[in-house]
Model the fold of this input.
Amino acid sequence: MFSDTKNRTGMAGSGKAVSSIVEFLTLVGATDGNHVVLQCSRNSASEYFNYKNAFSIVLFALVDTNYNFMFVNGGCQGRTSDSGVFTNTELYKRIETKTLCVRHPVPLNGREKKCSIPFYWR
Done:
């Protein structure tokens, strides 16, 4: 799920909102993942068995500073690593194909040497 599918400004405008709260001009938001424990089905074998010795799926999300979900992905097998979960998301595909609405890099103020800093999330 993406917030920018209906509103094409999407993540492009979130840097300004974030900078007013946490003083990071180029921060878009924060990402995190969480294991949701579930009861094992008979045929799952070890697909959903994670390093915490439980069966789970992974919920992955990107939120802005107002706790609005900008992207949500759920259902990846619990055994998948963090990078594996991320690289299987629509968010990753849009970053790679440069189809994600993110603002262009901006120069940092107060620097002798002007260098553009890309937008990022934490």
Remarks:
- The two ends are 19 Å apart (CA to CA).
